């Protein structure tokens, strides 16, 4: 049984079927990419899986447990973590604190202990700091650790979100356009990072428009169009699917971008 | 110099009381100093505006005592600020004359606190007397929810029975409410109500009176001494015709006969106030006038500007005629007024007239 | 090894509190100090709620009212010692905060503001209208705490003003210590996180509703203690303590000092406690100047006194 | 029955006044997300300036116009000298500036004018009309009519005019507004001028009914704010309905239930409404996707 | 057309542009590439006047821009599609577009809006929807269209391809090339450096607040250092 499994998921906004009857599964260590035209419903799908929206139809399960409509923090407790297409940074905290907060579930303890700064509370914070520093180094933001997060450039914030999501030590990680705002070289670094994380046994669900990246690292691709799943399979297969080319990839005349 | 302190509500919800009080204190001190001062010394008035906030009043009282080192305090425009100040003067043993209404200020008697206005309980009594005389025994009560209104309401309810008065309806309004029509509609439609009594000060009673007129209510309307100023008549407009209140001589200064014991003091105060402040004198300024005069009188008699001596001298005040009435203090009476100085007044053609 | 900025701040505070009396021209300043501390305590609670968690309350004076009136009433009706009444007040405040926090903390921004405003007004209305119990708008007396006499007995003889200065300072320093601890702890980060993005906070595992509620309850406890101390110190209390104007004053102090900053809370409270005293000399201009100063501080120190000044200092250093 | 109608008349009049104050809040809020705590002082200025001008011999309509202009000028000054200078300060800081401004204006009014209560005659006289036993004040009709008129104008302004949209854009995203060529400083000044003028208008209309004085702003602002929140902040129809509803609740509670707790009932209703509709009756849900 | 000389800018006390020089001639497409945090966005913000400058000169169409408020720069013909879209989330799609032409006559709005809808049909479909409800890529389309509504003489684009599906990236690049034929000058900041350089006339490379390299697009594409650092080939 896959770690994350989605069945018949759907939601409507007004009259619009933003997502309809989408299903797939993600195994530990796998990278499953969701691609599709703008407005296909990818982010909405993420929002339903991660508890930001309550699905109107269908079912999400984690490790066999039905988690449909659970609050984000309950999902986090079950090992699900995500980044956001529209950045959700803790602007007024330092860069390091952002990542430390990502480790909330490991760092939290009794409120009273925190109020009185007991040794246990300080130990938890120290541990979070160590882990967070390590993660910042991993995404190349260690030099900015003490800056206020709002002072980072767009690309840097994208990487900060990844570090924060990793701090949870997730079992399943949802990444919504992690490479947006990064140039080809920076994208490649993120590539490697994601691949590494997957290798450690984390299931990864990825939305990305950078086809080079998607083709390089996906184990499996799900294609959405107008809320429906129109194709699914291995990268090579999907990228040759005429439906996918028509709806999404376009006829590439050797563009440096899409298929490389 | 003799330092006298004051903290009154020059601003805030009770500024219609505190403003004339503060002005009165300043002009009287100037006048006294111009006339040579007290015991050969000038009076220095240190005055603060507590904005009607009891916590501030307490702070200013402390400041007057600890920092400014005054020998006595006049002030406390409202009962709540007065109560705060009382705590401080009791600890520091400094005489204090309050300008607020409630009975609780002088009952039980606190050694260091005195007051000049008639109590709210006396006002109720005076009004009920008049009602009874007119054969009005079933009334509707409407009061402001501020301290003055609530306290007077409580006392009126308390003593109504003593006068054979029955309160059939009891309505409340907020001190800054814009319209009291619903409450008055209820009083109007209450079967058997023969008169309406409004306890309150500030804009409330003016609006009540206007609404009373607009609703065409015919039962007599009584107001408290909280409206005892010319301004009330202006604000309430023609509907104020016929309104009765228990007031003091200052409102009918021009109708006093020359041989009225208060004639001299009232005329003098009215003249100086209206000259300097440019507006008609009110009973509230009168309270401050009496407080300061009482204090100066006591200092003169004590022969020394010492708190203890002043206190004792105030307590021995006898036959002191002020704007509010004749004061006869004693160890058990720190107000020293009786009902005789309270006069029932009625508004006729935009003027206060004495009711017989 | 760096002395953590938390400890440095607390040390500086302690030094100021201890040394300030040397400069007091008269006993009166102890009262001003004590008032600043009492306000500072409530404001520190608001720093947790507004500064950390980003939830605005326009009704926290309501909790101060509960704290104050419990101290006034519990000794009479329950025979409790005032110190225990203070404790009971915090328990009641915390309980009420917990009860109403659930539904109203789902509201955001001004909507939360008006809901808390309503709560504060309800409290002050009850205090003003239930005359037989509370004494009504004219207020009522509060029993003596009695600690000063006890101290005298063991040889520490303080004047009333000195005692309250020291006693309220202890509470303030304790409150500031706790709030600073919170700031740098997991719970504090959770609060600050949900301030910036509730959805992201939820995603990292923060139970947003629960943490908001904790901050609300905690700040209610601070406000309640502040009200209790005020009542015990003044030995007299009126419903004004719970009033809308007091609530707004507390929020103003919080923001003037610097909403997210614990020392800012104390600076803001001190500034707004001192200013009206300093401005009495200006007589009729007092209010205009007070308003003007508030505006100027916010124009030139947008993030509040302490954050702006400390940034300026660090920049030079 | 006549009693009930009388409560309704009273509630509608007072409610229309609340609605006017709430409508005043709407504009500055729509331009900046700031709830202007000095809004009540604009109401006060309307009443006070009119009174003193009228007393000095200026005919009442002219005095009222003068007051509206004066309030608008003060509103613009408040924006230019304070809000604009604070630049990109956080919204809470701007709110504190408006609190400071409210204290400043109140202090100024007691100095320039006085601390007394004042009143001038109603526009169509003070003679009440009796309609089937129900008393109606001509001035009450003025208040209601003007509130409805201001509502219609604002509704059209925000939904039909480009300037109205530009104001909304300014609050929604200041930087983006500048990037499309909106003079955001001007939009702010405009919104302060309009808000102040509407506030002053409320003060002028209400003075014959509820009197005016230097410190009358706070209670009006409080009720206007509550009304705006009840209806949904920033939406003209919300301000109108919220104001009328609040006035009616107060009057009906005072008349039928208990005058002691009429304000309490009003706030409880607000709490209940917000519980079911966290954005107020007509409030927009914020549209932020993640 | 647009000249930037020795431009300096800071956030608070920290200077992030340390003297940037850059020229855009009329009718040119000029692209700026650089790593995260190099200062590209800051540069565009300075040109548009939403970021204060602390030194240097900005001249547009012969007019110095220093001290000129942002809205007057738009009137002069400078429009920007900013990083992170910055659409008016609570206004409808149509209102967003209408405000794009805020300073300009109503007469041309309808045709321009029709053009925008023709370019991105999805925007027409959602014209009455609050823009905050759009998907990320749709918002990007809106931001670009909104900038075009001003019919700018010089268009500043900050990462226009971000979040767009491949098929649209190609389309956007075509649109930009098209603008050139209409005489519009374009200053393009792009992470998708390869695509950008392919349509650009010239390019600049920014590193930590400075211009470190410049040349024609062909030169830059051919440069080994650039290929290694930005093109990833
Ligand atoms: N809250 C909402 N209200 C109205 N419509 C919405 C809402 N959220 C999403 N939609 C619509 O649902 C559709 C799917 O949006 P979604 O953000 O999931 O697309 P996406 O696949 O992530 O696109 P992109 O690649 O551009 O990010 C879009 O047409 C969008 O307009
Ligand atoms: N609001 C801010 N406050 C402080 N520093 C900032 C702020 N915005 C940006 N910076 C800093 O300015 C520098 C330049 O940032 P800028 O956003 O211009 O970079 P960029 O080249 O656009 O990067 P990206 O490719 O990631 O968008 C970076 O070091 C960044 O950290
Ligand atoms: C009218 C006055 C007698 C009122 C009184 N000063 C009080 O408020 O207590
Ligand atoms: Mg998306
Ligand atoms: Mg950038």
UniProtKB/TrEMBL annotation, chain A:
Keyword entries, A-Z: ATP-binding, Nucleotide-binding, Transport
MF annotations from Gene Ontology: ATP binding; ATP hydrolysis activity; L-isoleucine transmembrane transporter activity; L-phenylalanine transmembrane transporter activity; L-valine transmembrane transporter activity
Record domain ABC transporter: where: 4-251
Pfam family, one: ABC_tran
PROSITE patterns per record: ABC_TRANSPORTER_2
GO term, biological process aspect, one: L-alanine transport
Domain of life: Bacteria
InterPro entries: AAA+_ATPase, ABC_AA/LPS_Transport, ABC_transporter-like_ATP-bd, BCA_ABC_TP_C, P-loop_NTPase
Cellular component aspect of the GO annotation: plasma membrane
Full protein name: Branched-chain amino acid transport system ATP-binding protein
Organism lineage: Bacteria, Pseudomonadati, Pseudomonadota, Alphaproteobacteria, Hyphomicrobiales
UniProtKB/TrEMBL annotation, chain C:
A UniProt-annotated Pfam family: BPD_transp_2
Membrane-topology descriptor: Multi-pass membrane protein
Protein's UniProt name: Branched-chain amino acid transport system permease protein
Superkingdom assignment: Bacteria
Location in or out of the cell: Cell membrane
CDD domains cross-referenced by the UniProt entry: TM_PBP1_LivM_like
The keyword Metal-binding belongs to this UniProt entry's keyword annotation: no
Principal cellular location given in the protein's record: membrane
Natural source organism: Neomesorhizobium albiziae
Organism taxonomic ancestry: Bacteria, Pseudomonadati, Pseudomonadota, Alphaproteobacteria, Hyphomicrobiales
PANTHER family documented for this protein: HIGH-AFFINITY BRANCHED-CHAIN AMINO ACID TRANSPORT PROTEIN BRAE (PTHR30482:SF10), HIGH-AFFINITY BRANCHED-CHAIN AMINO ACID TRANSPORT SYSTEM PERMEASE (PTHR30482)
Signal peptide (residue range): none
Keywords on record: Cell membrane, Membrane, Transmembrane, Transmembrane helix
Gene Ontology molecular function, alphabetical: branched-chain amino acid transmembrane transporter activity
Transmembrane stretches, start-end: 35-54, 61-78, 84-102, 109-128, 163-182, 213-233, 253-275, 282-301
GO-annotated cellular components: plasma membrane
Automatic annotation (TrEMBL), chain D:
GO function terms (MF aspect): transmembrane transporter activity
Entry keywords, A to Z: Amino-acid transport, Cell membrane, Membrane, Transmembrane, Transmembrane helix, Transport
Lineage: superkingdom: Bacteria
Keyword Transport: yes
Subcellular location per the Swiss-Prot or TrEMBL entry: Cell membrane
GO cellular component, one term: plasma membrane
Major localization listed first in the record, in broad terms: membrane
Membrane topology recorded in Swiss-Prot or TrEMBL: Multi-pass membrane protein
Segments traversing the membrane: 6-27, 60-79, 91-113, 133-158, 186-205, 225-252, 264-282
PANTHER family: ABC TRANSPORTER PERMEASE PROTEIN, BRANCHED-CHAIN AMINO ACID TRANSPORT SYSTEM PERMEASE PROTEIN LIVH
Family: Belongs to the binding-protein-dependent transport system permease family. LivHM subfamily.
Full protein name: Branched-chain amino acid transport system permease protein
Species of the source: Neomesorhizobium albiziae
From TrEMBL, chain E:
A GO molecular function held by the record: branched-chain amino acid transmembrane transporter activity
Stored PROSITE patterns: ABC_TRANSPORTER_1 (PS00211), ABC_TRANSPORTER_2 (PS50893)
One GO BP annotation of this record: L-amino acid transport
UniProt domain ABC transporter: residue ranges: 2-233
InterPro entries (alphabetical): AAA+_ATPase, ABC_transporter-like_ATP-bd, ABC_transporter-like_CS, BCAA_Transport_ATP-bd_LivF, P-loop_NTPase
Gene3D superfamilies: P-loop containing nucleotide triphosphate hydrolases (3.40.50.300)
The entry's keywords: Amino-acid transport, ATP-binding, Nucleotide-binding, Transport
Superkingdom of origin: Bacteria
PANTHER family, A to Z: HIGH-AFFINITY BRANCHED-CHAIN AMINO ACID TRANSPORT ATP-BINDING PROTEIN LIVF
Family affiliation: Belongs to the ABC transporter superfamily.
Protein name listed in UniProt: Amino acid/amide ABC transporter ATP-binding protein 2, HAAT family (TC 3.A.1.4.-)
Originating organism: Neomesorhizobium albiziae
